[in-house]
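Appendix B, record 7
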Amino acid sequence: MWGFSKKTMITKEDALPGRDQPLRIHETHVVLDTPLRGPWPENLEVIYFGMGCFWGAERLYWQTEGVYSTSVGYMGGWTKNPTYEETCTARTGHTETVQVVYDPAKVALDELFRVFWENHDPTTPFQQGGDIGTQYRSAIFTTTPEQLAAAEASRERYQHALKEGGYGTISTEIRDASDAGDGVYYFAEDYHQGYLYKNPRGYCNHGFCQTAY
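Structure tokens (predicted):
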């Protein structure tokens, strides 16, 4: 999933216009056999993670106990219902994102954050390894004030661990989902959903940042 070498965020005014019609996807998770879309049961919460290429990131979360459903999409930009090809031009403002629907009675937020911090490099703006572009930026988009506070506290703890290990400064974008671009999560094309289940030998660029948390 190689993007163009563009590391400057586009403005809302210069973003591609997109389209009114959403991209078509199957409605059921290929691994978990749960819905990909809400509304969700009242006991569940939603949070969004950008960790570079969303193929490997989604697999990490569907394998996490207490996660009810996952999907991949585009978030944090302004183009309406963008395609993958459009997102890769860096002209939509989106980052590749995993939607994680979880049961807080079964998995703690800190566990979701551990998966996030320990499986990508949050110190390389607009880049994960050889994947370069604004669509690969590190991000956490929250849906409750409690999530936002916990995410910021988690960043502080992990930054301390990185500093102790001689690593750089975290560049992760952390904000309320409603304040991330146009505030909308757009589902990616169906072939991206559960990609590494459908393609077990497919490209994965995660698991290389294992600093203690």
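Remarks on this record: Residues 12-198 form a domain with the Peptide Methionine Sulfoxide Reductase; Chain A fold (CATH 3.30.1060.10). The mean pLDDT is 93.
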